Amino acid sequence: MSDSEQINSENEKWSIRNGVFTTVILNISTNYFPLFAISVLGASNYEVGLMSSLPQFIGMFAMVIGSIIISRLKEKKMFTVYSFFAARLFLIAMAFVFFLPKQYQSMTFILLVSLMNFPFSFATLGWQALIADIISEKRRNAFFSNRNRVMTFIGMISTFIIGFFLQLFDKTNAAPYQFLYIAAFICGLLEIFYLKKHKEKKQPILQKLEKKPLFDISVFKHKPFFYFLLCSLFFNFGWQMCWSLFSIYQIKYAGATGLWISLFAVANSIGQVVSFKWWGKMADKYTNTKMLIYVSIGMASAPFLTVLSTNLVYIVLVNIFAGLFVSGTVLLLFNLLLESTEEKIRSQCIANYNILLALIAFVAPQFGVYILEMTNIVAAMYISSVFRALSGVCFFLFYIYLKRKQNFVQKQRVDSSSVTVM
Questions:
Q1: 3-class secondary-structure state, position 106
Q2: Which residues contact 148 (CB under 8 A, 6 or more apart)?
Q3: Would you tell me which of 79, 129, 209, 267 could form a disulfide with 319, CB atoms 3.0–4.6 Å apart?
């Protein structure tokens, strides 16, 4: 094995271990933010929606600043490390929210969740750019399908354990959540430890990016990226508009406790674990774009199926089914983002993509809650299903465009070869 292959192999190993602790943090803290806000702090529907959208609004500004910083860095690893550490510090602050006067607790918690997304957006942007540099394109589908499968399996186990842990306490008791937030911070230190072990080559600073505006519209001239952006933003709007609705439906309408919230997450993880490898293989065989058509259709069924019953066992089964397509969403969207960008402007494309994604993530949950207040939970979920299904049409049109572009390039090569022979 060459030195380069050895470095690549070690980077993949450290990335998987880093991802494991990232997943554990998500599953012992973030997954229970809505339950903590509703059951312990008494948050309203509007506040639950705000908890999904406000972090994205703050993250949008972070992406603008982060894109400028990233374009000036020869090495992205330490920037990403410091960003993750800053984000994890907010978990400590969350553990002490319950000591505030009752009238300030829910809004303070929402503000902490939101402000945490500022350094976390830096971390996400840095991590994406770092991974794009150190994982070769030919390895991405296989590596990410394996990485995501391991992360999901570990997340499933940790979520199951936490569900039983929370079941030991009254659902209005803040103490178990305080313990979880502190435990999440400790996991964050291990997450950073493995991130620092990545080996990164210094990248040349792209001088032409230094003089560009904060939000660089010139990257949209690359048509594959521009069309991917349109499809992805539309898909994410339909996907994220019902994130708050799921939490509201499960907790307020179906009466889910911490154990059931864990079972929902575990069920979703089971669906992801068994399908990650399949999506990777199918993407290699049929392309990421074509497989996203099927992902969109599958994702469209989740809101519709969920509101057919408040039976908690039934909702567990629906989450297993939904997980089959969530894995495809996570894997294919990121791979297609990297595939649709040119290497020389990839960091800037990723930054602009995340800025616009943050804007969608701010608007979509608020729109979902608005529909809920104007109609009812069933109508709001159905509308989300329609948006998700329509995104499948967008990806189908993008697939046709890429197919025609590929055929045109091949025809030019054949014509060029014919001329050379003559």
A1: helix
A2: 19, 272, 276, 327, 330, 331
A3: 267
